[in-house]
Amino acid sequence: MKSAVYSFIALSDNSMVASVKVAKFVASTLDLPLTSDARTLDKDLDVLIIINGAFAFAKNLQELHDVILGAKRIVWVQQDYSIVPPINNGQAQSPFRKAFVERKEQGKSHLEFWTTCEKESKATSLSTYINWNCLTMALKPVPRIISQNDVAYYGSYRTGRMKAFDRYFFEPRCKMIISSPSKSFQQYDHDNIQHVGVQNDLLKWLSERGLGLYLEDEKSHKEFHSPPNRFYEMLSAQLPMVFEEAAGATLRKAGYDPSDFVVRNPLELSRRLDQRDMIERAQSSRWREIAAKERYGLTDKIRAAWAKIKGGL
Q1: Does residue 95 surpass a pLDDT of 80?
Q2: Which residue among 14, 74, 238, 271 is least crowded, i.e. fewest CB within 10 A of its CB?
């Protein structure tokens, strides 16, 4: 069977981009060729596995169109719900999008999903729920450095978290550090807030913080998605986490109950700093084994999903 893995994001040995890590893991696990250059792909593949990414900026879209059109089946690897999969109807403009419209016109299948999103995992009989985010769980915990008396939040400024940002960042009662490339965070101009850029050694930086603040997109309150990378990153760095209450439903469904670590306002958040060592011990004992099992089981999960795809050819 002739198959390949395609990444929209350029591949590099030291890339920290989540989708690149996933692409390498899939290709290695299934022993398949991996490329980000569509010109190197055969136009008559049995299965093309596409790793989701910012496809609007991808190169060689016409060549990718031809590969997509010629493949018998296409697997869409989705590790972030915000990257919307291509559709096979509408007025497609780019060669990439047009390929899926043309596949439908020719009576070919659309997409099978290997996805962190429960909804998409039920899209077809050959689709599978796979928690790609647990790939960021370190197999060995990062040594915990004597922590600072601060609360860390990191990531992009996302509209689905704006209410939560205002709740915790508008009038903070303790020192908070926001690590983000997003200039929108600068609106929270307060003596207790320090804005820093993206950290080159994220796990080390996390290991030095006092607490990690976990916030969730409003969409994730309503639809089940895997716990995000930052959950596994903070757990890997042995950083004790505190959670907004609304994130509880998703995490409990994933096997991680944060009920004992909820903070509802800046005052509760500041008081939790004095409990950080106790919180870290509790979370490590309750969650580390579960997360490690997820991480170790990822290989078998992918192979089982692959067997299902091959059986459907």
Answers
A1: yes
A2: 14
Spell out the CATH class of 3-130.
alpha beta
Residues of the chain with CATH 3.40.50.2000: 151-294
For residue 243, what are the CA distances in angstroms to 76, 216, 249, 283? Answer: 31, 9, 11, 12
Residue 233: which of 168, 117, 114, 141 has the closest Cα? 141
Burial code (b: 16+ CB inside 10 Å, e: under 16) for 111-121 equals bbbbbbbeebb
pTM of the complete model: 0.93
The Cα 6–Cα 13 span in angstroms is: 16
CA separation for the pair 81, 229 (Å, rounded): 13
- Helices 229-236, 276-311: axis angle to 10 degrees equals 130
pLDDT tens track for 21-47? 999 999 999 999 999 999 999 999 999
Closest CA to 251 of 279, 212, 224: 224
Multiple choice CATH, 151-294, 3.40.50.2000, 3.20.20.70, 2.70.98.70, 3.40.50.300? 3.40.50.2000
